[in-house]
Predict the 3D structure of the following.
Amino acid sequence: MSIEVRNVSKRFGSFQALDDVSLDVGGGSLTALLGPSGSGKSTLLRIIAGLEQPDTGSIHLAGEDATGVAPQQRGVGFVFQHYAAFKHMTVRDNVAFGLKIRKRPKDEIRARVDELLSLVQLTGFGHRYPSQLSGGQRQRMALARALAPEPHVLLLDEPFGALDARVRAELRVWLRRLHEETHTTTVFVTHDQEEAMEVADSVVVMNEGHIEQVAGPRELYDAPANDFVMRFVGEAITFDGELVRPHDLELVLDADEWTREALVARVVHLGFDVRAELVGDDGAPFTVQLTRDEAERLELVPGEIVFVRQKRARQLA
Amino acid sequence: MTTFLSVVVLLPIAALVWSSGKHGWHAFWTVVSEPEAVAALKLSLGAAVIISVINAVVGTITAWVLVRDDFVGKSLMNAVIDLPFALPTIVGGLTLLTLYGPQSPIGVNIAFTRTAIILALLFETLPFVVRTVQPVLLELDLEAEEAARSLGAREARIFRSIILPNILPGILSGVALAFARAIGEIGAIVLISGNLPFKTEVAAVFVFNHIQSGDENGAAAVAVVMLVFAFLLLLTIGGLRYLATRHERDA
Amino acid sequence: MRRYGLRGIAVFYLLAVLLGPLAMVFYRAFDNGLHPLWASLTDTNTIHAFNLTLEITAIAVPINTVFGVVCALAIVRQRFPGAGIVNALVDLPLALSPVVVGLMLFLLYGRTGWFGGWLSHHGIQVLFATPAMVIATIFVSLPFVAREVVPTLRELGDEQEQAAHTLGASGWQTFWRITLPSIRWAVIYGVVLTTARCLGEYGAVAVVSGHIEGRTETATLRVQDYYENFNTTGAYGIAIVLAAISVLVLLAMTLLKPKEAV
């Protein structure tokens, strides 16, 4: 099911969370809303779910105006950052909730719950209570619960934010695979650009209530629409007045018309790669990434003066 | 819900305020400044102040013992503290009368004295300060005290400079609740005090007696004063709660 | 050394003010032997008094429970202007003297009161009868359920309820399946406190009841009645029954008390 956001604005007191935001999310896609805190991404997600009402603008789900429709009727599944588990119910009852509300027959419910528990790899945990599960397990339960009533849209609000690094990495892969199996339109919110790039087909970069750019991960990295996006997605360094990627810089021993002087402050060996921390001739620190071989060839030592230039600079006449 | 609240709470308050004021401010003042009324109010207020001070001290000590100390019977002691909340007030008064009244086995007879009033109020207000200070003590950062100790501070100083400032809002909340309760108490007092006008007649008993004798005006006047006090105390408690959570909100 | 001192003060205080007197009552009740005690307790008017107390409690507790839950939900979940005033009004019965409460009802429902004329015209007896006593008891025991539920609701947050909405549950379904089960212990604890308050109510019902033996006397009023008529055995008898109930209530309170471990 497609989602259309048209000119949505929302303010909380004196804080403008969303300012005239419009967006199209294609049916069956996996989209990330990426941005720093306060960018409005969670607010937008909640408005799509119907958990908040926009001040102005509209939301269309599958072409129909859903702006005034209650969350109960929108057919959206929502996963919260802190799980929102029904603490007084077992895992099975949690997952079955949406189906019980819809008064499905008991056999159907039991079968579907079994199917979902197997999908999220929680078979055998059905009779436990949420407090007896780990964070990762709770979130998988929350996902199963949201998927049980077969929603048209799956919305996740920083779903892995409360989990530790390894579990987060596992669940990312897992979410991607889940989407490939179910093909449900999925939108998730994250402030972690790596997560967005790794999981989503399409990334919506937001900042201060606006959308900065909508693009696939590759395009976002290679052709950022502005400085904010460039800085937010991947690393960016100011060199010669422009923003460049660290790996677009190279160190050489001889000066030429495209180079700037820099002082080597520190050389950090990160396994196979080497990160050189330098101070430019304008006093600003920056880093350049090199392979071990390159670093050895240059004989980088702290205190040494080297020359920096952009790699493709020579092609520019 | 609002209708229920209005009918059950607001309407009666309105009736009281209207009744006491219907003959005008001057009439109200005359009734309230009658010697018997003044005596009753003074007694109630005075008693409330005394028990507040006692509760502040003993209540804090009890809370301290319950939180920081450990001994056989501590959980029993903790449970027993709530007894005045569970026991009917008149039974409370009667129990005090049994031990400290005319047939006292230990020869202490304070019936019909002001001491009896104080004792009855102490009984009824016992849990307040203990229960407001306990949770605060539980939340205290022990490491702050350890830091102070390592810097050379002695226990009394630690209590005064580190512990007391943190539990003070808790103590004051409990005191405000005890104070409110003390001004209005009747059940525990009515048997043991003898209700002698000018001697052991508290404000609540004054109101009661004057209703019985048909003097609704007198009763209403003193009742309104008590109502005003109740509101002020509620505001104080609310204010204290606001102050106590201020730190969390600033964070 | 200091520790024993503090412990001693606390224990002594509790014994002197609380436990000693209570023990004394149980002891004294049996002073004249079992028979007079039993006779006083099974006296028709006394039995009526106990029944009346239970009847009033059985009416007031459910009403205040429903009110308490609804009120707590309104205060915590709805951002309406005047929530602070509602909060204060609900707390008022805790700070107000029961006698003042009785007087207020007297002024409303007495013969010369606001509704007095209308009521006597329609032959409805409120004052000096059970209705007034029920209203008085409802007023004084109003706050307990609300005060217990409010902090629990606040701490719970409404994410579970939001989740239920996204899963298709209506307002009522959400309340019944999600909210209520989550607050049930707070409600139960509130009900225990409310019940204790209703059983022990004295001041307000003393004013509005008229103390009519066999008709408008509750157990607490009967204690006073017996005592003032020098039937100390009778007074102690009722007192120990009430005290025994209180100990059960105290047990329930201790077992159900939210968090705050010692």
